[in-house]
């Protein structure tokens, strides 16, 4: 018996020293584990600990690339004559478009990040390339509902979104409950942050039905409101190519891998330090900079302005952190 107890004690000690305790990804213990690593960012509680992990997975809605999918053309910039600044913010570069660029949207209880990253960058580029004369929000609702080959609330493909913009066109439309454009987003905002005042996110939504008419009460004709543009991808993992594209044409849509620690982001320059892979997520990159010696991308998320750093976050730049530099998509509007 004494030998058995001794063996059990040795086994327990090895488990504690060699093994790794896995905490619930929304628990205080998990958040403390991140902050105890003294990394480049800070974590805090963004979601209630009782939020189902399945609900978090549905927020990250970029699906694996389809086999034999149509490819957008590759855009390659000549960088010799481009001076890339140490810091850049599209809102400051194009102040007449700052309100469009800085709009924080809410995909709500729907895996439509792929659509939001696309229409946000499209909206910015219409404003920028019209010299601030055309200020519209392109409709995430119209893209998500009507581009059946692009995806829906169960996820989608950013490349297809930009291709659809060129082939079919997308109407205007703003945030839920507004009359800002033809088709506003139809899914109500919900809470992605513990300290907010929005209603709790309920069951995840099905993709709404495609309607090729504008919202009731809006004096706009759907077919006359369609905007179109081109779509292309930026050179794989080339930081200066991405920077040159943003400097030249405006914000871009980016895709990266989300891990469990990202949901607790609060401030600083994010890099993955804890937790398992969750899925792919699409966002909008509007600039870059350096914080405490760490290079970063400045990014707009679509989980409302109460999440993270008022709807924004920073992620480490230059090492393709979580694949952020491996899949960047953009295009030019037809004005």
List key phrases describing it.
12 strands, ten-stranded mixed sheet, alpha+beta, globular, Cathepsin B, Chain A, disordered N terminus, single chain, Peptidase_C1A, 10 helices, two-stranded antiparallel ribbon, 335 residues
Question: How is the secondary structure organized here?
Answer:
Blueprint: H1 2-18, H2 28-35, E1 41-43, H3 53-59, E2 74-75, E3 88-89, H4 90-93, H5 98-101, H6 113-129, H7 140-146, E4 151-152, E5 155-156, H8 158-167, H9 222-225, E6 232-234, H10 239-249, E7 252-259, E8 265-270, E9 277-291, E10 294-300, E11 312-316, E12 328-330
Parallel strand pairs: 2-6, 8-11
Antiparallel strand pairs: 1-8, 3-9, 4-5, 6-12, 7-9, 7-12, 9-10, 10-11
Summarize the structure in words.
The chain is an alpha+beta fold and 335 residues long. It has a single domain, classed as Alpha-Beta Complex (Cathepsin B, Chain A), CATH 3.90.70. Helices cover 27% and strands 17% of the residues. The chain has 10 helices and 12 strands. The chain has helices at 2-18, 28-35, 53-59, 90-93, 98-101, 113-129, 140-146, 158-167, 222-225, 239-249; strands spanning 41-43, 74-75, 88-89, 151-152, 155-156, 232-234, 252-259, 265-270, 277-291, 294-300, 312-316, 328-330. Strands 1, 2, 3, 6, 7, 8, 9, 10, 11 and 12 form a 10-stranded mixed beta sheet that branches. It has a two-stranded antiparallel ribbon with strand order 4-5. β4 and β5 (155-156) form a beta hairpin. The chain is globular and about 60 Å long.
């Amino acid at each position: 018996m004494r030998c058995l107890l001794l063996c059990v004690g040795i086994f327990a000690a090895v488990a504690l020293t060699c093994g790794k305790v896995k905490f619930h990804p929304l628990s205080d213990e998990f958040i403390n584990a991140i902050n105890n690593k003294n990394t480049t960012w800070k974590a805090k509680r963004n979601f209630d600990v009782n939020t189902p992990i399945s609900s978090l997975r549905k927020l990250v809605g970029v699906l694996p690339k389809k086999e034999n999918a149509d490819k957008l053309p590759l855009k390659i910039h000549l960088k010799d004559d481009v001076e890339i600044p140490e810091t850049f913010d599209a809102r400051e570069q194009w102040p007449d478009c700052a309100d469009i660029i800085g709009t924080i949207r809410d995909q709500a209880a729907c895996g439509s990040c792929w659509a939001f990253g696309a229409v946000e960058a499209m909206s910015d580029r219409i404003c920028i390339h019209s010299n601030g004369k055309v200020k519209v929000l392109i409709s995430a609702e119209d893209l998500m509902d009507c581009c059946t080959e692009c995806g829906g609330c169960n996820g989608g493909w950013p490349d297809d979104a930009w291709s659809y913009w060129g082939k079919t066109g997308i109407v205007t439309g703003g945030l839920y409950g507004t009359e800002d454009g033809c088709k506003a987003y139809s899914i109500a905002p919900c809470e992605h942050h513990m300290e907010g005042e929005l209603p709790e996110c309920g069951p995840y939504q099905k993709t709404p039905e495609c309607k090729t008419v504008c919202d009731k009460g809006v004096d706009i004709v759907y077919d006359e409101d369609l905007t179109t543009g081109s779509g292309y991808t930026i050179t794989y993992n080339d930081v200066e190519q991405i920077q040159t594209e943003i400097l030249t044409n405006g914000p871009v849509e980016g895709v990266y891998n989300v891990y469990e620690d990202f949901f607790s982001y609060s401030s600083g320059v994010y890099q993955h330090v804890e937790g398992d892979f969750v899925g792919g997520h699409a966002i909008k990159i509007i600039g870059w900079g350096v914080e405490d010696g760490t290079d970063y991308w400045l990014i707009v998320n679509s989980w409302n302005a109460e999440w993270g750093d008022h709807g924004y976050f920073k992620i480490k730049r230059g090492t393709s952190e979580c694949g952020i530099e491996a899949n960047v998509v953009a295009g030019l509007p037809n004005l």
